[in-house]
Design a protein that fits this description.
The chain has about 160 residues and is of the alpha+beta class. It has two domains: about 30 residues, no CATH class; about 120 residues, no CATH class. Strands 3-4-5-6 form a four-stranded antiparallel β-sheet. Strands 1-2 form a two-stranded antiparallel ribbon. The chain is globular and about 55 Å long. The protein starts with a strand and ends with a strand.
Length: about 160
Amino acid sequence: MIGLRGAITAPHLCNGLMVPTVIYDQVYSFDVDALLESIPRPDDADEKQFAAVAEEVLWRILQLADNAGATDEHRALNYLAVRYPALYANAAEQYADNATLTSVEVRPSRLSGVRNIVNAILSYTHRQTDVTDKQFVRVDVTEEYPFLVSKLMPYYDR
C-alpha cells in the first residue's frame, strides 16, 4: 500500500487492537511467484540460476524490509524490493562471480538538501576470499512516491 498514515484506531474497532489507520492512494497486490516472474532476466543469465538467486535476494530484502514503511529507510527498501529489477540482475551477476549479498544498509545521502535522498548500500562478500564489494543506489523519499535518483553503482567508504 502507498498512502498516508493516520491516527491510531480505537480498540473497539479492531478486536481490541490499537493500530494506525492508512489512507491509501495505491495498492499493489501480487504473490511472490508473480513478482519473481516479472523480474527481467539478463540475456546471458542461466534461467534456473537466476530464478534461484532472485528468490534468495527477494527473501533477504523482504526480511530487511519487514516494516510498515514508517521511516525513509523502510520506504526506500520497500520501493527497491518491488520496483527496481536491476537489483536482482546485479545480485545474480555477483552470485555467478561467487559472491553473496551479506548486508544492506540505508544512509542519508550527501545530496540531500531540499529533497530527502537516501543511499541504499549493498555489500557482497566473495565466498572464498572474503573480500567485500559494495554498490549503492540513491532513492528520493521526499514525497509519497519514492523514486530512483541514480542507478546502481560502485560504493566507496570515505
